[in-house]
Design goal:
There is one protein chain. The chain is built from 17 helices and 19 strands. It is of the alpha/beta class. The chain has 2 domains: 2-260, 4-Layer Sandwich (Nitrilase/N-carbamoyl-D-aminoacid amidohydrolase); 271-467, Rossmann fold. It has a 6-stranded mixed sheet with strand order 5-4-3-2-1-14. Strands 6-7-8-9-12-13 form a 6-stranded mixed sheet. Strands 17-16-15-18-19 form a 5-stranded parallel sheet, with helices on both faces. The chain is elongated.
C-alpha cells in the first residue's frame, strides 16, 4: 500500500480554496499511485475556526465540501479533517473528526478523543470528546487514525486519564495515522518529534503524521509532516514553512528500511526568521492586501521588521517612512536611508517637527506651569502614529507594528503611537533575539547597516535618551521576562536564580500593570510557547505583583 502525505496551507472559512486544494491533492495522489492521501486536522474549515463553529451554517458548509471531495475518492482513499455534528442528545454540539473516504463514499468518521484546553487551544469549548474506538480497515490494512492531541498523552506528566492508542491496541492495528494542527514555536519541533517517537516505539508500529502549514492570523504552523518506522526513526519528513506532498510505500516502512534521508538539526534563528516571513506573507495574502507601511526609525526593531516584510511581500511593496523630530540623530536618519537603499525599498522623509510643535502650541495653555515629561515624549510618538495611519488609510497599506516582546512586556511603548498597526511582526521576539535575527540576515552580506546593530538602542524622544535609562540591560531583562512569561516562574523562584529582588519585583510589576496596553495592540506573530495574545489570558484589573 502507498500512503501520500498532503501538507497544505489552508485558509479558515475559505471553503472553495480549501476544497479545491484537497481535490487537487487527491488527483495527484491517484496519478502517483497512492492508495490513501492524508490531510491535516480540520483541513476543510482551516484551523482554528474558533467561534465560527458556533454557526450551524459554517459546519454545514464543511460537510457540503466533504460531499464534493468524496466524489473524487473512487480509486484513491483519503483521510480529511473537519468539524461534524454530534447527533446525541447530550454533550457539546460538535466533534473534531477525521473522515475516511473511499469508493466514492464516506466510509467512517473518527472523532478526536483528547481535546486540548490550554494556551492557544480551547477545543473543549466546541467539541465533544470521542468515546468509541475503532480501526479503519482498507485493502487488508488495519489503521489506527488519531487526531493531533490524541498522541500527546505519552508525556511524563499526562494531562488526560485515557490514551486513545491504548484503547485501539486491542484491535491489533498495523500502522498509525495522525492528522494534526500543531503550531510552531521555537521549542515545538524538538518536542513534537519526541512525542511522535515515543508513540512509534511504545506501540511498535509505523506512524504517518500530517501537520498543518501556514499562518492563521498570529498562529504559525510549520508543517514538518513525517513518517516514522516502528523503531521511532524518521524515514522522511516534508518541508518546513511551505506546502509539500510525498508518497510512501508502507511495506518498505514496515521493514524499518530507512531512506537516504538524513535528519537535519533545526537552526532556531533560521526557523524563527522563516516563520515570521511566512506569517507576514500569509496575513497579507489571506486578508487580500499586498502592501505594507512602517515607520523606519534607525533602530534595530524597525530595520528588522522592514527586512522581514521585504522578504515576505517583495521590496517594492514595503513603504518606509522616516519621521524625524528635533531629537532624532543624524545617524538614525542616515542608517534608515542606507537600509532602504540596501534593499531598494521605497522611502520618504516626513519631518514631524511642525505637527508636533502645533500640538505643543494647542496644549500650552493647559500645560502651563507643568514641566515637560513623558507626556511630550508620547506626543511625538502619537504624531508619528497619526501620519502613518493617514498614509495607511489613503493608500490601502497595512501598518506594521515594530515593537518587540521586551518592550511590549514592560509597557515601553506609546498607545496610539508606536504601538499602532495592523500586525505586530516581532511582538513575540525578545530584544536579544532581534539582534540574533539581524546577524542571521547579515550572514552573507550587510543588509542591515552595522551601525544599527551596534549602537545603543534609543527611542530618541528626549535629548541623549537611551533605553538603558529606563530599563536594565536587555540580556538581564529578557532572561527575567522569559522565566516569568514562558516558564511561569514566580518572583521567589527568579530571585533564587541569582537576580536581584528589587529588580525582579520592579520588572514583574511592570509586566502586570501594563496588561491594558497589550489588550489594545495588533495581533502578534507567535514564535514562543507563551506569547502575548490568545494564549495568555491575564486580567487587566488585578493586584498580583502590581
Amino acid at each position: 500500500m502507498k500512503i501520500a502525505l498532503a501538507q497544505i496551507n489552508y485558509h479558515i472559512g475559505n471553503f472553495d480554496s480549501n476544497t479545491s486544494k484537497i481535490i487537487e491533492a487527491i488527483k495527484r495522489g491517484e496519478k502517483e499511485g497512492s492508495d490513501i492521501v492524508v490531510f491535516s486536522e480540520l483541513a476543510i474549515s482551516g484551523y482554528p475556526p474558533r467561534d465560527f463553529l458556533e454557526f450551524t451554517d459554517f459546519v454545514e458548509q464543511c460537510i457540503s465540501s466533504l460531499n464534493k471531495i468524496v466524489k473524487y475518492c473512487t480509486k484513491t482513499a483519503a483521510v480529511v479533517g473537519l468539524p461534524t455534528f454530534n447527533h446525541n442528545e447530550k454533550g457539546k454540539p460538535l466533534y473534531n473528526s477525521a473522515a475516511f473516504l473511499a469508493d466514492g463514499k464516506i466510509k467512517s468518521l473518527t472523532n478526536k478523543t483528547l481535546l486540548p484546553n490550554y494556551d492557544i487551544f480551547d477545543e473543549y469549548r466546541y467539541f465533544e470528546p470521542n468515546n468509541e474506538f475503532n480501526l479503519v480497515v482498507y485493502k487488508g490494512c488495519k489503521i489506527a487514525i488519531t487526531i493531533c492531541e490524541d498522541l500527546w498523552n505519552v508525556q511524563d506528566n499526562p494531562l488526560y486519564t485515557i490514551n486513545p492508542m491504548d484503547e485501539l491496541m486491542s484491535q491489533s492495528p498495523d500502522l498509525m495515522i495522525n492528522i494534526a494542527a500543531s503550531p510552531y514555536n521555537y521549542h515545538q519541533t524538538k518536542v513534537r518529534k519526541e512525542v511522535l517517537r515515543k508513540n512509534a516505539i511504545q506501540y511498535n508500529m509505523p506512524l504517518y503524521y500530517v501537520n498543518h502549514v501556514g499562518a492563521q492570523t498570529e498562529l504559525l504552523f510549520d508543517g514538518g509532516s513525517l513518517v516514522m518506522n516502528s523503531n521511532g526513526e524518521i524515514v522522511d519528513e516534508l518541508s518546513y514553512f511551505e506546502e509539500d506532498f510525498k508518497v510512501f510505500d508502507t511495506d518498505e516502512v514496515a521493514k524499518n528500511k530507512l531512506s537516504e534521508y538524513k535528519e537535519l538539526d533545526r537552526i532556531e534563528v533560521a526557523d524563527i526568521h522563516d516563520a515570521l516571513v511566512m506569517g507576514i506573507r500569509n496575513y497579507f495574502q489571506k486578508l487580500g492586501f499586498s502592501k505594507a507601511i512602517l515607520g523606519l526609525s534607525g533602530g534595530i526593531d524597525s530595520a528588522l521588521t522592514a527586512v522581514l516584510a521585504a522578504e515576505a511581500l517583495g521590496r517594492e511593496n514595503v513603504y518606509n517612512v522616516l519621521l524625524p523630530s528635533r531629537y532624532s540623530s543624524d545617524h538614525s536618519i542616515d542608517d534608515s536611508v542606507q537600509l532602504a537603499k540596501n534593499l531598494n525599498m521605497p522611502y520618504d522623509i516626513i519631518n514631524i517637527e511642525e505637527a508636533f510643535g502645533s500640538f505643543e502650541n494647542i496644549l500650552e495653555p493647559y500645560f502651563k506651569g507643568f514641566p515637560a515629561n513623558i507626556t511630550e515624549e508620547n506626543l511625538q510618538a502619537r504624531t508619528r502614529g497619526v501620519i502613518l495611519m493617514a498614509l495607511s488609510n489613503k493608500f490601502g497599506y497595512i501598518l506594521l507594528n515594530t515593537s518587540n516582546k521586551s518592550e511590549a512586556a514592560v509597557g515601553y511603548g506609546t498607545l496610539y503611537g508606536d504601538m499602532n498597526g495592523g500586525l505586530s511582526v516581532i511582538g513575540d521576539v525578545y530584544k536579544t533575539q532581534a539582534y540574533e535575527l539581524a546577524r542571521y540576515i547579515n550572514r552573507k552580506k550587510e543588509i542591515i547597516p552595522e551601525n544599527i546593530i551596534t549602537k545603543p538602542p534609543s527611542a530618541e524622544l528626549r535629548p541623549n535618551q537611551k533605553d538603558s535609562d529606563s530599563l536594565p540591560d536587555y540580556d538581564i531583562l529578557d532572561e527575567i521576562l522569559y522565566q516569568y512569561i514562558e516558564q511561569r516562574k514566580g518572583p521567589k523562584e527568579i530571585v533564587d536564580m541569582g537576580f536581584e529582588k528589587i529588580l525582579v519585583d520592579r520588572i514583574l510589576k511592570l509586566v502586570n500593570t501594563n496588561e491594558y496596553k497589550r489588550h489594545q495592540t495588533p495581533p502578534m506573530l507567535r514564535i514562543s510557547n507563551k506569547a502575548f495574545g490568545m494564549g495568555r489570558r491575564m486580567p487587566i484589573v488585578a493586584k498580583y505583583l502590581g
